[in-house]
Amino acid sequence: MNAKAKSTWGGGGKAIFRTKSVCPNPTLTKVSVRDFEILIDEPPSNHGNDEGAQPLEYMLASLAGCSNVIINKIASENNITLLDMEIDVVGVCDTRGIFGIEAIKVPFPEVRLTIRGTTRNSEDDIELLREQLAWRCPVKVIIKESGSVIKETWDINYV
């Protein structure tokens, strides 16, 4: 299968996701995903050229993106209307492992996930979103199972 192959969804089974990367210098990684290129780099303070977000920033962005998709999927399945939504993610990173000071089992001891939005639905409906997001968002599950504590805040306006 080539680098531009489409991801295959298994309808509840297994799906295959592929990336292919070229590393033209010590900090820049050019990742091909389907028909997209993702640039991963470091800021000048870490000897990079700031041509893209850092790998850990992409990991946190993946949590925001996956949460958005899964929340909206659950909402659609349950006739929940979200009039708007914003998602912020903050990761508190223990950098001792990165700098070779000591082995760290949980590089992100704390991840803060904040979801803001507006709905016409009830608090019980939003609670359903919260409960199902916990086990249906693969990125959230991976982060939680790594040992990170996810501090989740939902700030919902009910109209």
Mean pLDDT: 94
Kindly estimate the percentage of residues that lie in beta strands according to DSSP. 25-35%
The span between the termini is: 49 Å
Provide the domain count.
2
The number of strands is 6
CATH homolog superfamily of the largest domain: K homology (KH) domain
Order of helices and strands: EEEHEEHHE
Commentary on this structure:
With 159 residues, this protein is α+β, with helices and mostly antiparallel strands. The chain has two domains: 52 residues, no CATH class; 104 residues, 2-Layer Sandwich (GMP Synthetase, Chain A, domain 3). The protein contains three helices and six strands. Strands 1-2-3 form a three-stranded antiparallel β-sheet, with no helix packed on it. Strands 4-5-6 form a three-stranded mixed β-sheet, with helices on one face. Helix 1 crosses helix 2. It is globular. It starts with 19 loop residues before the first strand and ends with a strand. The model has no long low-confidence stretch (mean pLDDT 94).
Brief write-up:
With 159 residues, the protein is α+β, with helices and mostly antiparallel strands. The protein has three helices and six strands; from the N terminus they run βββαββααβ. Strand 1 and strand 2 form a beta hairpin.
